[in-house]
Design a protein that fits this description.
Blueprint (H helix, E strand, L loop, with lengths): L1 E4 L5 H9 L4 E6 L9 E2 L1 H14 L2 E6 L4 H11 L3 E4 L8 H10 L4 E7 L4 H9 L5 E5 L17 H10 L4 E3 L8 H8 L3 E4 L4 E3 L5 E3 L1 H18 L2
Parallel strand pairs: 1-2, 1-9, 2-3, 2-4, 4-5, 5-6, 6-7, 7-8, 8-9
Antiparallel strand pairs: 10-11
């Protein structure tokens, strides 16, 4: 069971998050989208992703801009393991996927799918024709594209998507140590993602990871997956 932890900002907390059990770490490289306090300078992105590579942890660059050209520019500069398209005004297209592969041959593509009703099933199927991963998430939060609302959604729909698409699905949306085992049992995804419930939030949009909660989340996910033979 892949444990994906968003949204890292500092180098030290990134290292601690990896040590706590994260398989994937995600951050927002400096861009014209997302909460300003969450954007990570490119120099620090390189430092964090280099350390992730050294440890065998997957690096995810989160795209909250709605400008595909800016996304591709960042992908070319950063060369992440995964590029996550999460902006609420742009979704990846076959042409975008082709161009990404040309400028970042080793970067895989993840598309966020807003699960607001059963129409998400058909949208996920369409994306699955040309992306490498689907991430299922809850409603829109201010300045964060699809996701970061801290709310769960209809897991029955998610379970159907997992069964009907042919690419790995990562479950997001209100995931924390308290409910990740239940989500895994219900949905049986490829991976689980946590941001809000494993973060300490401060005024002005600043935040940091709660490492104890990250560790508890990862341990609970591993235990649930082992019990289910996933």
């Amino acid at each position: 069971m892949i444990k994906q932890i968003y949204s890292l900002i500092q180098y030290d907390e990134s290292v601690k998050t990896m040590e706590a059990g994260a398989d994937n770490i995600g951050l927002v490289p400096m861009q014209n989208g997302g909460v300003p306090a969450h954007r990570v300078p490119i120099e620090r992105v390189h430092k964090i992703f280099d350390e992730a590579k050294r440890r065998g942890v997957t690096s995810v660059a989160i795209m909250l801009t709605n400008d595909p050209e800016e996304m591709l520019q960042i992908a070319e500069e950063v060369q992440p393991d995964i590029l996550h398209v999460a902006g609420d005004g742009y979704a990846a297209t076959p042409e975008f996927a082709k161009r990404l592969k040309e400028i970042a041959p080793n970067t895989e593509l993840m598309q966020a799918v807003l699960v607001d009703n059963e129409s998400a099933i058909d949208r996920a199927k369409k994306f699955a024709e040309y992306v490498d991963y689907i991430l299922l998430d809850s409603g829109l939060a201010p300045d964060t594209g699809i996701g970061a609302s801290g709310q769960t959604h209809d897991w029955d729909i998610d379970a159907r998507i997992v069964q009907e698409v042919n690419v790995p699905v990562i479950e997001a949306g209100g995931m924390g140590p308290d409910n990740v085992a239940e989500a895994i049992a219900k949905i049986k995804p490829y991976g689980v993602d946590s941001l809000t419930k494993t973060s300490i939030k401060y005024e002005g949009g600043n935040m940091e990871k709660d490492i104890d909660k990250v560790r508890a989340f990862c341990e609970a996910a591993d235990k649930a997956a082992a019990e289910l033979g996933l």
